[in-house]
């Protein structure tokens, strides 16, 4: 990892961040804290405005976060910043809340944005890499709670294997899919619904679900266009995408294939089959690029 300065935000990055975390681990184990901060909905800015505006937004957020005293701010990757500080637990939680409010209440941004935060004490692990893994796991949990939240506790080993995983169901008739929702939830997943494609795009950019299930003919932004928009982002385009529709013909199958939609199912469908598919996709038991259309 190179010791570099982020060209977008001007913040230190690379090995400077790794050294800062390792220093806390080695010398400040009783009062060192690491906060991983994710800018929610930044992909929405990149998609509906421009990538340049997205970078400018990250720069502005870096300025907002830098105003917190007695802390050090770094750029990690993508929409993630890292802050290190020393103090007791109350101070760490207070700083995290200050960060959350500072961004959420800001009038300096092109859209109302929020941040999700994963908080880790330096004495929770013996290496910077392990601290990073714990922080990213908590950050993921905070995002799946809907964003704009702080997570300072890891999931218990007693939790369901899929309790931290989320499925987004995009269908204006989602109330008619209660059997499917129940089958998915019975496997331990959380299910979030969206009534149209634009709502789905905003939800995805905020919580990054593990699997997306979309009806083809949803309002405002159809299933194909939703998939095309998501593919503009490497991160969001990698989310497994399952398409459902009463319509089924060679032309639609070819279009789905061109968008790398590898799971296209005709209604009426088997809720059990789709729930099992979701489980396999979510845990990565097979890769989409190695699968064929179903």
UniProtKB/TrEMBL annotation:
Zinc: is it a keyword of this entry? no
Origin superkingdom: Bacteria
- Alphabetized PANTHER family for the sequence: RESPONSE REGULATORY DOMAIN-CONTAINING PROTEIN (PTHR44591:SF3), STRESS RESPONSE REGULATOR PROTEIN 1 (PTHR44591)
**NCBIfam families membership:** GGDEF
GGDEF domain location, by residue?
A: 30-155
Identify the stretch annotated as signal peptide in this record.
Answer: none
Query: What region holds the Response regulatory domain?
Result: 166-282
Its GO biological process annotations read: phosphorelay signal transduction system
* Protein name listed in UniProt: Diguanylate cyclase (GGDEF) domain-containing protein
Q: Which organism is it from?
A: Alkalispirochaeta americana
Q: Which UniProt keywords apply?
A: Phosphoprotein
Name the Pfam families for this protein: GGDEF (PF00990), Response_reg (PF00072)
